[in-house]
Amino acid sequence: MDGPDSVAGLTQTLRDGGYLADRGLATALFVAIRLHRPILLEGEVGVGKTEVAKVLAAVYRRRLIRLQCYEGIDTSQALYEWDYARQMLHIRALSERQVADPDAVDKLFGPRFLLERPLLEAVRAGDDAVLLIDEVDRADDEFEAFLLEVLSDFQISIPEIGTIKADSPPLVILTSNRTRELHDALKRRCLYHWIGYPPAEREVEIVLVREPGVSTALTRKVVAAVHRLRELDLAKPPGVAETIDWVRTLSFLGSDDLTEQVAEDTLGAVVKERDDLDLVRENLAEITSGA
Ligand SMILES: Nc1ncnc2c1ncn2[C@@H]1O[C@H](COP(=O)(O)OP(=O)(O)OP(=O)(O)O)[C@@H](O)[C@H]1O
Ligand SMILES: [Mg+2]
Fold first, then answer.
1. Atom of ligand 1 nearest to the CA of 25
2. What pLDDT, in 10s, does the model give residues 195-242?
3. Strand runs (DSSP E) across the chain, as ranges?
4. Which pTM was predicted?
5. Is the Cβ atom of 49 under 6 angstroms away from ligand 1?
6. Which atom of ligand 1 lies closest to the CA of 43?
């Protein structure tokens, strides 16, 4: 399996894949990859937490296995389930043919009827995979405790089949928007990196990497406006994703400047809360007052 041999090498490889990582993030990722440690990426909304896992998988030709967390997720959705429908069909077929196989029941709980879910898939794939455990803060406490167990030994026991262990663990990237504090035990197991909003120049660069056709001057104006938006007390401040969307929208409409009128017409690309809209409209002249 290929991997980076330096922080600079990793930074360049990510850039070639369309992702701009600053020094801190690249270093954290480099250590995570080389020391086989899970890494927890926390940060604002839309700052590239999920994207970095996708790009890493792509550039190192690893399989991306994604476990999307949500409220109420449980172990069967994360590990494995028995394919109940196929088991039933199999039983029916056996009884129609009047097969009296003494091992029939055992076979029903064998590999043929096992539905692998992301964690089991990742344990099997080992270091051929990047395991993205996305938005772990949405899952509940018990699920977090269970994750901790899986992450500590990369070993899964299925009573009917036996123990499956990864030869070498996959690269594990956990993300969180910090809607709640994660437990210390989980954090201790992981390297940690906070991704904040990028500085303006860096954000311009990110937009130009993602949308190579757009005007640099327009991008600068949009980024300046977005940075002012982030200073307002918005319920949902815009992330990098919104900056990209706004630039894309403007260039699609053929606007080469961000005037107050143009901004007002296209606000839906960046501001997605009613109350925020009111606040932004009141301050629009200042927000669009140039880079
Ligand atoms: N450093 C970066 N380099 C390249 N693209 C970036 C970068 N940061 C953000 N992006 C862009 O922003 C978009 C949103 O990023 P992503 O979905 O990874 O955000 P996120 O942090 O996971 O957000 P959320 O918290 O909403 O899940 C990506 O599709 C990507 O185009
Ligand atoms: Mg995400």
1. 1
2. 999 999 999 999 999 999 999 999 999 999 999 999 998 999 999 999
3. 39-43, 63-68, 80-82, 114-116, 129-134, 155-158, 162-165, 171-176, 191-195
4. 0.91
5. yes
6. 21
